[in-house]
């Protein structure tokens, strides 16, 4: 974990935390805890990296481009597996009525995401080293996506014999206690005995609305302070920020992380590797980027080169704030008026990203349950691919453990106004592999 | 298949078919078909043999005694597997709150009944020898136990790539056709293409109410006449009759089937084997049994020794007619008045069986969903064990294939009036193996 890097990009003193209250709160809590001394060096990530196909013109080959990288509450893994099972059952059962020669068994890849996610949690549990300790799922009250989480819980119990406790931050405010000396986290209540927690898996805490009062932050920090392995820790959550995604594209940053001989004892990535990785990214920059590099304190008031560039290229851009959960992005023609009213100090929280241009003319029927004869809609669609993986890392004396484990496809109606992936009609889908 | 034996015991000329209209109908249909020439020598059985613990007194060891042997529509295999999974999940999840040292993982035996039943169907399908042919499930209209059947259907498709078609006898009256020369059975309709049927699995046709008119019998016989392998064929269905169960207990009958050197080329069962098998049976006799052995045509009007014995021992007996589905038995004190009014010619359809005496003092809570606070009932219970197996047999040129595949437990409230297994409150349950 590169603490100075995260401080610079996401921190409250120099980074996004200056202007984003939520990021600032998390960063301040983390800062205090690490100043006291961190009880657990390991971080667990259950990650999902999302991609769209990019086909801007017939002159260039279609390529996969990264939309974002999720370090917290990467969802829909188990439901994606159920969807793949459904599509494979329909193939076996109906042969899709011979509607396409591609719809044959060998083109349906396996989806074992649930077992993979469970293995990540189990490996962290083993690293914690207390067999009877449990895994805590921190969940939102009234969670609607509960079945996605329950499949994972059952798999953890069935395959690894590890028990899961589900609690909200509000419940944990009453039930969670930290041993002052050992930093062992225990959960107790009138109905439970008291259980030691080995791993904390966050399916809540990624959005400001999970923290209506300071009490929820206090609970989050109590969990962070514990010896339990966090999935993710606060710094790993911050590392998933949009601003980090953008900064990684700046010259030299990728080299700093992946090609520093001194850091990796010769086991570095080659120039070709880095070029290939960069080729999966769209162009990005910060609205606070400025060629002028003035140290004039009045500079904030002036328009940065980052903002100017965003105005000029607005028709092929999306602006993304430091917010999870979607629905906050600003697209194309909405960008100039938005920039007119964006307070200069908030520029730091926003990145500009070239829009991915999905292939044209991909149609499908989107079916919604319970909508009667109007439940089926023929639509131009765009499919987003998610690749799941896990990593356990952070202790210099222990080798990093990591694995790529599965996939997710979400197919959405393509809103021609916005050109990209609009909110709204979206369904879980499956991969069909086709030789090209 | 011992045709003369079945004719003698179940046929219309000498056996149960004389007095039981349903058995007579099935037997007549079978007789006509075999006189024409049987198109398919193989029979498939998916069997379930049911047992109760017998503990009549403290002086004799508790033993397992056979209740009955099912040759048609042996149900609850897949649901039994789900129940075992549920109980094992509850063990893993709660440890049953340490309520008993027996409730540990190694005491929960595996239940893979669904895969075993599917394998039986698949082996028959392979023996039929047409890879694209389908399996026909003959089902009742408005079947409530459909999920038990669907799990099996999905397993057959998933594990063996074999498609299942579900139809009622009434649907088959329109959709089923038989090729006159080849006796190939095909199912067609406006929504299906036409499919050849390799195996017919009956989950209907075991009770007279499945045959409200002669049309359903005609359809049943069309299926029987086909080259498809029947599970069960009519003779195999008849072999499951209560009367057959009783006749097997008569001196010499077991020896005829299992210890005839000429028949089995030396591969026979030993006397000890036969004694062990007999030890799993209760005493049984036919109400038409008569020591007097008169050939006097007026004998029917007199009370046979079988009836006299039933009167004398009524308090420890159950009378069972040739009927599937339960609810037709006559117990203990109800026996003498019942015998007073039983027309003498119907004696042939009834057997007397000594009541199995289940162990005393086994209590449990029986929970019924949706019954509010009155849904839980503490009751003395009795548990019935079912053992599933399949066999493919009947072609002298092909070795018999067979396998024991799984189990079922049903636990019922013990009605002290009747002493045995009364109808009513009954739940799916699981085995817990305990060293004694």
UniProtKB/TrEMBL annotation, chains A, B:
It is an enzyme of class 6 (ligase). One of its GO terms (molecular function) is ATP binding. It catalyses: gamma-L-glutamyl-L-cysteine + glycine + ATP = glutathione + ADP + phosphate + H(+). ATP binds at residues 68, 242, 320-329, 331, 353-356, 384, 412, 418. Mg(2+) binds at residues 68, 70, 324. InterPro entries: Glutathione_synthase, Glutathione_synthase_a-hlx, Glutathione_synthase_C_euk, Glutathione_synthase_N_euk, GSH-S_sub-bd_sf, GSH_synth_subst-bd, PreATP-grasp_dom_sf. Homodimer. Belongs to the eukaryotic GSH synthase family. This is Glutathione synthetase. It comes from Jaapia argillacea MUCL 33604. The lineage of its organism: Eukaryota, Fungi, Dikarya, Basidiomycota, Agaricomycotina.
């Amino acid at each position: 974990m590169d603490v100075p890097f995260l401080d610079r990009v996401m921190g409250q003193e120099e980074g996004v935390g200056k202007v984003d209250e939520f990021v600032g709160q998390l960063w301040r809590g983390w800062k205090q805890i690490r100043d006291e001394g961190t009880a657990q060096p390991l971080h667990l990530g259950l990650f999902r990296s999302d991609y769209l196909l990019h086909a801007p013109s017939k002159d260039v080959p279609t390529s996969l481009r990264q939309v974002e990288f999720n370090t917290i509450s990467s969802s829909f893994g188990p439901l994606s597996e159920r969807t793949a099972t459904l599509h494979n059952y329909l193939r076996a059962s109906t042969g899709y009525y011979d509607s396409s020669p591609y719809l044959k068994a060998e083109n349906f890849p396996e989806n074992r995401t649930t077992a993979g996610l469970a293995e990540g949690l189990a490996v962290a549990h083993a690293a914690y080293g207390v067999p009877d300790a449990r895994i805590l799922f921190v969940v939102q009250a009234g969670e609607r996506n509960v079945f996605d989480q329950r499949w994972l819980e059952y798999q953890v119990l069935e395959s690894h014999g590890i028990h899961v406790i589900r609690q909200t931050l509000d419940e944990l405010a009453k039930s969670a206690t930290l041993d002052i000396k050992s930093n062992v986290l225990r959960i107790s209540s009138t109905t439970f005995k008291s259980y030691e927690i080995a791993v904390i898996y966050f399916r809540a805490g990624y959005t400001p609305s999970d923290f209506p009062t300071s009490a929820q932050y206090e609970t989050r920090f109590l969990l962070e302070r514990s010896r339990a392995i966090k999935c993710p820790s606060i710094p790993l959550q911050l590392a998933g920020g949009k601003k980090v995604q953008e900064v990684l594209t700046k010259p030299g940053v990728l080299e700093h992380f992946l090609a520093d001989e001194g850091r990796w004892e010769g086991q570095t990535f080659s120039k070709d590797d880095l070029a290939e990785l960069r080729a999966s990214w769209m162009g990005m920059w910060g609205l606070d980027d400025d060629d002028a590099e003035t140290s004039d304190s009045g500079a904030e008031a002036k328009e940065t080169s980052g903002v100017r560039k965003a105005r000029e290229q607005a028709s092929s851009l999306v602006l993304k704030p430091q917010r999870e959960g979607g629905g906050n992005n600003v697209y194309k023609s909405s960008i100039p008026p938005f920039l007119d009213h964006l307070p200069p100090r908030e520029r730091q929280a926003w990145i500009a990203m070239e829009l991915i241009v999905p292939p044209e003319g991909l149609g499908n029927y989107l079916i919604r349950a319970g909508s009667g004869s109007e439940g089926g809609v023929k639509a131009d669609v765009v499919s987003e691919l998610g690749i799941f993986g896990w990593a356990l890392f952070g202790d210099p004396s222990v080798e990093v453990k990591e694995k790529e484990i599965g996939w997710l496809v979400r197919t959405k109606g393509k809103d021609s106004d916005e050109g990209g992936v609009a909110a709204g009609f979206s369904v879980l889908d499956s991969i069909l592999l086709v030789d090209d």
